[in-house]
Amino acid sequence: MIEFHDVSKTFAGRPAASHLNLHFAEGAFSVLIGTSGSGKSTTLKMINRLVEHDSGQIRFAGEEIRSLPVLELRRRMGYAIQSIGLFPHWTVAQNIATVLQLEKWTKARIADRVDELMALLGLEPSLRDRYPHQLSGGQQQRVGVARALAANPQVLLMDEPFGALDPVTRGALQAEMTRIHRILGRTIVLVTHDIDEALRLGDRLILMDQGEVVQQGSPLELLTHPANDFVREFFGRSELGVRLLSLRTVGEYMRSQSDAVAGEPLRAQMSLRDALSAFVARRCEVLPVADEQGVTCGALHFRDLLTGEVAGEVGA
After folding, report:
1. Alpha-helix runs per DSSP H in the chain
2. In whole angstroms, what is the distance from residue 148 CA to residue 85 CA?
3. Whole-number Å distance between alpha carbons of 268 and 295
4. Which of 22, 93, 116, 169 has the smallest count of CB within 10 Å of its CB?
5. Residue 146 near residue 172 (C-beta atoms within 8 A)
6. Are 203 and 195 in contact (CB under 8 A)?
7. Cα–chain-centroid distance for residue 286?
């Protein structure tokens, strides 16, 4: 879908990106992560030509991006940023419809699309005619994501989209993005400095430092087979076990249970990390597990988190 071939970029003689070779697969959720100033935002902005690369080639859907008119390229890519950038004197509906108006959609078609996106992003219909200052930070960010998705872009680019939000709101929006990606199957490229966010959202991680790619691969590969000490220290030696739990789901480790288990059930798609928190909070050894329809389908045992595959990976 998006390919970098020996791409470099400098600012005032200093390299921001050096000889990048990357492949963002169609339908994948890729995450650029790294230290401050590592070049991850520059890399993202080169995809839609907000920053022009100095050398090398960037191909989008088989075409070199410089062969495409810049407005055409950007209309094929949604873009969501931390500061959101909503127009303060436009309503929620008008903000979501920004690109649709430029595309000259009919009013009826725009109205239907706005309603569809508000439902997808969990925005109540009553918010349709409100202005940005009347919304919470989380609601504003949802509107920003809805606007980025409005014209059915092939790619969604996201630059620290949840960085300014409180932990609870941030967690809720991360869950929303996981759900939306599962439903729409869009190619997503996200920039974050938050390791746990990267592990929670990404199918593929690209770890950068000083404008170069240090290692790329699945979250499990980077955690269990770090390329060097920088990767090992970046993800935290002492936190490896907990972070590995975030890559596994309750459904993978639950047991079939014939006897009833008391308590509010865990969701089968919940991470083992969240399940661990539930065990600590409830001070118990076994918890029931329910499927997406809320039907009890098994039980998770606390001791199973301390043995088996996850424990083996931690010791690796």
Report:
1. 40-47, 70-75, 92-96, 98-102, 107-120, 137-149, 167-184, 195-201, 219-224, 229-235, 240-245, 250-253, 272-282, 308-315
2. 11
3. 10
4. 116
5. no
6. no
7. 31
Beta bridge partners of 63: 60
Q: What is the pLDDT along the chain (316 residues), one digit of tens a residue?
A: 999 999 999 998 899 999 999 999 999 999 999 988 999 999 999 999 999 999 999 999 999 999 999 999 998 999 988 766 889 999 999 999 999 998 899 999 999 999 999 999 999 999 999 999 999 989 999 999 999 999 999 999 999 888 778 888 888 888 889 889 999 999 999 999 999 899 989 999 999 999 999 999 999 899 989 999 999 999 987 678 888 888 888 998 999 876 778 889 999 988 898 898 898 888 888 999 998 888 999 999 988 877 655 555 655 5
Question: d(Cα 190, Cα 80) in Å, to the nearest integer?
Answer: 9
Residues 6+ apart with CB under 8 A from 154: 1, 61, 76, 77, 186, 187
Torsion-angle region of residue 12: left (phi > 0), alpha (psi -120 to 50) or beta?
Answer: left
Kindly list the distances between the CA atom of residue 64 and the CA atoms of 1, 24, 152, 157, 158, in Å, as whole numbers in the listed order.
Answer: 11, 15, 21, 18, 21
Distance between the two ends of the chain, CA-based, in angstroms? 34
Cα distance between residue 225 and residue 221, in whole Å = 5
Q: What is the pTM of this model?
A: 0.84
Task: Kindly report the backbone phi and psi dihedral angles of residue 293, in degrees, each rounded to the nearest multiple of 5, phi listed first.
Answer: -90, 0
CB 236 within 8 A of CB 306: no
**For 22, which DSSP code?**
E
